[in-house]
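Hi support team,

I'm filing this because I wasn't sure whether my run with fe (ii) ion finished correctly. The job status page said complete, but I'd like someone to confirm that the output block is well-formed before I use it downstream. Pasting the exact inputs I used:
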Amino acid sequence: MLFRQLFDHASSTYTYLVADEETREAALIDAVREQVERDVELLAELDLTLVYALETHVHADHVTASGLLRERLGAETVLSAAAGAGCPDRLVEDGEVLRLGRLEIEARHTPGHTDGDVTYVVRDGGRPLAAFTGDTMLIRGCGRTDFQQGDAERLYDSVHRRIFSLPDETPIYPGHDYRGFTSSTVGEEKRLNRRLREDIGRAAFVQIMENLDLAQPKQIHVAVPANLRCGIERPPEGVVEVSEEWVREHAEGLRLVDVREADELRGPLGAMPGAEHHPLATLPAALGAPDERTVVVFCRSGGRSARAAERLAEAGFTRVVSMAGGMTRWNALGYPAIGGGAARSPAECG
Ligand SMILES: [Fe+2]
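And here is everything the job wrote out:
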């Protein structure tokens, strides 16, 4: 395995480069948007082809480079199916395995810091070479559980059942370090992690997490919505975006079109009152002929609706706009939704 640990000073984020030395196929884990030039240059210098841009979770403290890496290098962007983002090419489920030459990358769902945390376990011939734990477990510590969909009990179970179950000698590479440490091992953390070592029980851990009293990350309101869109914030050329606030205010005279799949309307984000439902694949035909109303297309987080707006414009709809933050932000603002509930939105909690 070819391996590099890279660092972004502004956010104390580690980015990892993992590659198969023979096929030269590579993956970047948690690439940072501000460092995209460095990473692209390094890949070229090492003669590597970027196959995957992997995310351990939807970050609150920096914006991902994954969308840019997809645009520039054709990499597939990968995130947990539980993360609630519409932009990635591949939404991985627990246990799914990606391949890079002879290397296998297992995506282990390890929620608790957010809903969609993944620990990537890299293996060669069955032997674990490294576990990339994101913010689920840090060296001697762990990620926060007080925003996004943080849940201390879930994090405890993820670490004890899904990370500590790896062989003790497995190297651990975290998503961040604030003190200058670079790696650890499963065995070392079982003994020495200040919050999660084996002699600390679940209740004691929850108490530790409840009493941290930390300030919110500075970038949270920028980073989370941007990361739900793979770090690409501009809509495709020619697509006009409008805010949820604007749609709510002008709803009367608008034609509201939800382009999500049917099962998503029954999911935690619910459905928008007064909207029609036509999945992206059925557009433009399902809308019939344009009338005098402005068409507002929307989806979960703004990715598919931007594509829908593009398609409708091509089909002759002259008044069509995309609602930028989708039902995710609609819910975050507390606007009415039919069904749903239990939606803990990124905007309100990180
Ligand atoms: Fe995080």
